[in-house]
Design goal:
Number of helices: 3
Shape: rod-shaped
Distance between the termini: 66 Å
Strand content: under 5%
Largest sheet: none
């Protein structure tokens, strides 16, 4: 019985690893460093009108459909 259990445990462990590799969890967002976040915030502060125009353009496209 022990031999069969060991073989089954090894098989289950390998299957679990294979399934995790095929279907990784993507709940965590990609890491953005503190310097990158500061850079993005600075760009957003420098161009606030650019963000507004792109948002309005997106909404206009959806209303046209």
């Amino acid at each position: 019985m022990n031999r069969r259990k060991k073989i089954k445990d090894i098989y289950d462990k390998r299957m679990k690893q294979a399934n995790l590799k095929v279907n990784p969890k993507k709940s965590k967002p990609k890491y953005i460093s503190k310097a990158e976040r500061a850079k993005m915030e600075a760009e957003a502060a420098a161009n606030p009108s650019a963000e507004i125009t792109t948002e309005t353009a997106d909404t206009n496209e959806t209303t046209d459909v």
